[in-house]
Design a protein that fits this description.
GO molecular function: glycosyltransferase activity
Number of strands: 13
Pfam family, one: O-FucT
Radius of gyration: 25 Å
Family: Belongs to the glycosyltransferase GT106 family.
Shape: globular
Strand content: 5-15%
Structural class: alpha/beta
Membrane topology: Single-pass membrane protein
Helix content: 40-55%
Subcellular location: Membrane
């Protein structure tokens, strides 16, 4: 929420109008907004309205912040005091054309819910048979960011510790300036399982021995450069040789080597290459990703509850006569407590073909930080541009490279996150009917309920953790963004079809897991194609539907061989999967 304008003189108002038509480059506007920190919107209100507003905001801010399940009750306050004014509805001609087209009898495509072909790829994780020889010292790693930035950080930490033959201290999670979650490893992940799982590969400890007790996270916060045993400003995707050159000398001299970010809000995450690593190191990272990191039982059980509830709703909508007679199937992870661990395809089989329990998972990443970092424009006027520029200056001190380009160019290049209504139009264009149950994973969407309303008109059965569970049930998770993200992850992982509107760590890890444990249909939106289609104001629904269907035939989640420098977390083949030879026809 931005600062408020307490009124302006006529002279200042005239100046704002006169400057309106002066062209400025994106960089100039960014610098101006960051310098001024001006969050104000056009026009002013009487001073007493702002005083009343501040009083009411202060009175209710705490309850709004800590109880997102009641966010709908706070919409009036959010809209009154936000720097963002939702724009008018877009793509109206296409929306009207869709309604006219769907008023006729239209059958769902036969393969709408079918999983994509696996192309012969199967999960392939190799367990080593030798005891760990970790005796060179201790590796201490600081992670930060969203939950799946942290997830990647931990997986990389396992690989680097093995690479340098160090004992790994359970990674420390720094509180992110964006996510503001104080949770530590044991609050999210099953520590006992993590340590036991790697006992034949790597020694992992919960705390340093007494002789190294001085090495605490606060010692390195924003002071890593001053500590001789700490490495920061590590280049993204640093090579094996870099770590072998830099880390062992620190272990030998100090006993503890630390990998940290340059600020107290940053950490070490995407700092290990995907190329040129020994097979056993790559496999160790794969195993950490798919098997080593498991959520604590409380998160797993509540995720299971949410999945059962949305499948029950799906049953009630699609087969109301059967609803009283049937129960929702169990999610795949309900078997994880058994003595025998299920493999790959067995873990996610069973629900995919069950027509009466199907649901679609939607990752709507449209929060303020994502929109600000994209440098795209979403119709909120000068107030939106200034507010997002000031937000960028606060969060990303080094700047955001995309601000060098015009928003229109970014959009046509496919670099802008889809709005919720654009996601709905795409899914409807692919053939998903209005009766499709949709689970929406999101936090605080930029623009509030005004952004969700068009999506809900397309898919009225729109659920989330806040609608599937009561405030009382959610209370243990509500203050913690990482725990909430973990719940969303489990529900989306178990969905029959999944789609995300933006690139990022969450959808990358999720898509990779759905590929590995499936494959299950994961739609990867062609945002460049969609930008082109949405720019055609006179396009008919029939043409739109035909083009998006054809344009996404190869973007449905089938395993494909990872290209150089692409993420192993998004594309697990061939590093974590094996391809079976094609059977000869004859």
């Amino acid at each position: 929420m931005g600062r408020f304008s307490w009124g302006a003189s006529a002279k200042n108002r005239d100046m704002r109008v006169s400057r309106k038509d002066i062209p400025t480059s994106p960089v100039q506007e960014e610098a101006e907004a960051a310098k001024s920190g001006d969050y104000s919107t056009k026009g002013t209100l009487p001073k007493y309205v702002w005083v009343l507003g501040l009083f009411v905001t202060a009175l209710f801010a705490y309850s709004i912040e800590v109880t997102p399940a009641r966010i709908s009750n706070a919409i009036w306050f959010n809209h009154l005091f936000s720097e963002y004014r939702p724009p008018r509805r877009t793509h109206m001609n296409l929306t009207h054309s869709r309604k006219s087209f769907l008023s006729k009898t239209v059958r769902d495509p036969i393969d709408l819910w079918s999983p994509p072909p696996d192309n012969g790829w199967k999960p392939c994780l190799i367990h080593t048979d030798f005891e760990s020889g970790s005796d060179n010292g201790y590796l201490q790693v600081m992670c930060s960011g969203g939950l799946f930035q942290i997830h990647i950080c931990v997986c990389n930490a396992v690989a680097v510790a093995k690479l340098v033959n160090a004992t790994l201290l359970i990674p420390y999670f720094r509180k992110s300036l964006v996510w503001k979650d104080p949770s530590q490893f044991g609050d999210i992940y099953d520590t006992d399982h993590f340590i036991a799982y790697f006992e034949k590969d790597l020694r992992i400890v919960r705390q340093l021995p007494e002789e190294y007790a001085w090495s605490v996270p606060d010692l390195y916060a924003e002071r890593c450069l001053e500590r001789p045993n700490c490495l920061t400003y590590v280049r993204k995707h640093s090579t094996m040789n870099w770590y072998l050159e830099k880390v062992p000398p620190l272990l030998q001299t100090h006993g503890v080597a630390v990998l940290d970010g340059p600020t107290q809000y940053s950490g070490w995450d995407h700092k290990l290459t995907f190329e040129g690593l020994p097979v056993h190191i790559t496999q160790l990272r794969c195993r950490a990703n798919f098997e080593g990191l498991q959520f604590v039982p409380a998160i797993q059980e509540f995720g299971k509850l949410l999945v059962n509830r949305i499948r029950a709703k799906s049953l009630a909508v699609q087969s109301p006569n059967l609803a009283p007679q049937m129960t929702a199937p169990q999610p795949w992870w309900s078997t994880q407590n058994n003595e025998e661990t299920l493999s790959g395809s067995e873990m996610l089989s069973g629900n995919s073909g069950d027509q009466v329990h199907r649901y679609l998972g939607l990752h709507v990443r449209f929060e303020k930080d994502m929109i600000a970092h994209s440098a795209c424009y979403y119709g909120g006027g000068r107030a939106e541009k200034r507010a997002l520029a000031a937000f960028r200056a606060k969060i990303w001190r080094g700047g955001v490279s995309k601000t060098r380009y015009k928003p229109e160019a970014l959009r046509m290049n496919g670099s802008c996150p889809l709005t919720p209504d654009e996601m709905g139009l795409l899914l409807s264009g692919l053939g998903f009917p209005i009766s499709t149950p949709v689970y929406m994973a999101s936090k605080n969407l930029y623009g509030g309920v005004a952004r969700i309303k068009p999506l809900k008109e397309i898919f009225p059965i729109l659920e989330s953790k806040y609608t599937l569970a009561s405030t009382k049930e959610l209370r243990p998770f509500l203050p913690y963004s990482h725990k909430l993200a973990a719940l969303d992850f489990l529900v989306l992982l178990n969905s029959d079809v999944f789609m995300s509107n933006a690139a990022g760590n969450f959808p990358n890890v999720l898509s990779g897991q759905r590929t590995f444990y499936g494959p299950r249909k994961s739609i990867h939106a062609d945002k460049r194609l969609l930008a082109h289609l949405f720019s055609k104001s006179s396009i008919s629904w029939l043409e739109f539907s035909s083009q998006v269907t054809e344009g996404h035939l190869s973007r449905l989640g089938s395993p494909v061989r990872r290209m150089p420098k692409y993420s192993i977390f998004r594309y697990p083949a061939p590093d974590c999967m094996c391809q079976e030879p094609k059977q000869a026809v004859g």
